[in-house]
Amino acid sequence: MVKFAVICASNMNRSMEAHYQLQKRGYNIQSFGTGSAVRLPGPTPTQPNIYQFGTAYDQIYTELTSQDVQLYTRNGLIAMLERNCKVKRAPQRFHDEPAFFDVVFTCEERVFDAVCEELLNRAGVNSRPVHVINIDIEDNHKDAGVGAKTIIELARQIVASKDLESDMDRIIEDVQNKMPHPLLYTVAFY
Asked: Where are the beta strands (DSSP E) in 55-138?
């Protein structure tokens, strides 16, 4: 079974929507963030809510609902956290994850760069390839849902492939032509 990871900056919105959708369809999926901390909108743009990776989604939910339930319901954070609680316990940081994946989906170019740099820093000592695909997704609830559809289409074609090494360029081209998101692709090594 193909082992997938999906990664955004904070492991809150884009990666979790894709994780949720792929998990519902039975894929072997984990999700992560690459930031130094989990950042969520606060009462003003200069007052974000900042949490450490590993802080439980239900704890974040409790804190935000006690701060201003109307604001965080209106901006979609409450619904997002309710979804996240159904998927896993807490946001995780990719840099702290020792597991191997066959395919890693990233949700923006700076996350793609951070993942490639982290894999390079791991020095490829196991000579195990990993396909890293970036799907450029705006960080909002609507685009996270649309982006998850692109990731699902990629996953569907990847799982259906009999020879992923030979088929990957064709898969990338096919999905790029069908879906609205620009894609970047590389092969890295664990």
From this structure: 103-106, 129-135
Beta strands per DSSP E along the chain = 3-8, 28-33, 38-40, 49-51, 103-106, 129-135, 183-189
Among all chains, which residue has been given the structure tokens 């929507």? 17
Q: Helix crossing, 14-24 with 77-87: angle to 10°? A: 40
Distances (CA, A) of 58 to 8, 31, 48, 54, 82: 20, 17, 18, 11, 8
For residue 112, the surrounding DSSP H or E stretch is helix 109-121
pLDDT score of 17: 98
Q: Could you identify the residue written with the tokens 């990731």?
A: 151
Dist CA 5 CA 29 (whole Å)? 5
Give the pLDDT band (50/70/90) at residue 107: very high
E strand intervals along 41-111: 49-51, 103-106
What is the average pLDDT score of the chain? 95
The pair of three-digit structure tokens given for residue 63, joined into one six-digit string: 């804190």
Cα dist from 163 to 131, 160, 169, 170, whole Å: 13, 9, 11, 11
Q: Which residues contact 187 (CB under 8 A, 6 or more apart)?
A: 129, 130, 131, 132
